[in-house]
Sequence to fold (348 residues):
Amino acid sequence: MELSDALLGWYDTHARALPWRVPPDESRVGMLPDPYHIWLSEVMLQQTTVTAVVKYFHAFTTRWPTVHDLAAAKDAEVMGQWAGLGYYARARNLLKCARMVVADHGGVFPETRDGLLSLPGIGPYTAAAIAAIAYGHSETVVDGNIERVMARLYDVHTPLPVAKPELTALAAILTPQDRAGDYAQAVMDLGATICTPKSPACGLCPWSSACKARVNGTAADLPKRAPKTRKPTRYGIAYIARRNDGAWLLERRPDKGLLGGMLGWPGAEWGAKPIAQPPLNADWQTLPAEVRHTFTHFHLRLTVQMATVADETPDTGQFLPADQFSPDDLPTVMRKAYDLAKDRLIAD
DNA sequence: AAACCGGGGGT
DNA sequence: ACCCCAGGTTT
Fold:
């Protein structure tokens, strides 16, 4: 039997139930899921775990049930709803993409890999995933799970990312003509639940008898990766000003760069040493505790300073009335600073 | 090709 | 502390 058939048989009984997925029930054979749901979930799943995505997927589809609804949303609403999920360029591209689908494609996502690739936020992985899962096309989907499964199945020792083309070619050979979407999801489920990064459960794997790494005893050591550089530490100051009427002084960060497009507390750029740059003159109080946060490529230590101020015009940022501010709209590092300040307000 | 871009959970 | 994750964009 073909390897793909063995895996599809396993998927029919072991597929995880996910909100955007049509279960492989006998009564629903051939049913395809909503392309809007697949696109939204796949963008959210970029470098993000299923557990984290489920809550956000539900919130987005409840608030914006169709791509038309999302396309009509305001930028700040979408950025706020995305807060906490990370990689905020995804949220900006999500909204751009929704508006392009409505304006240029009549509200229908393109069906082909190339058509999907032309949209913002959709790269090789997501284009193949949408074409296969939402439209049933035989496209080869390669994500981190599938790289790991292929490296083990064929005992490939070439380190990533150099090994990527080789692993993609191997994955393409296995991709079936029929049920390519189920097949892609099956390999990803296999990687997520059985062929895990550490301690793979080879005894439960439908591909165990074919797996070369299992025979050679190398499965747990694959895939190989290029060595990583260690993260430097940066320092900064967050200024949290509260006006007498309860308004908070916040700034919208520029679209490009770190935390692009998100709300945050004013302060100088983070660097090797903290730089004082208060947004206005006030009696700033330094909090006894600091915020520690780790980004993709550096650690951050953030000192938090607070002040209560009168109605002044700040040098940077603008006051947001209390009824228009929700801490849920903040990215996590800014939320951590807020939580420290909130504790101080309660203590006083 | 390499750098940039979050956050959380597991180990 | 280090690993990983249903990657894409920019330089």
In short: Chain A is about 40% helix and 10% strand. The longest helix of chain A spans residues 89-105.
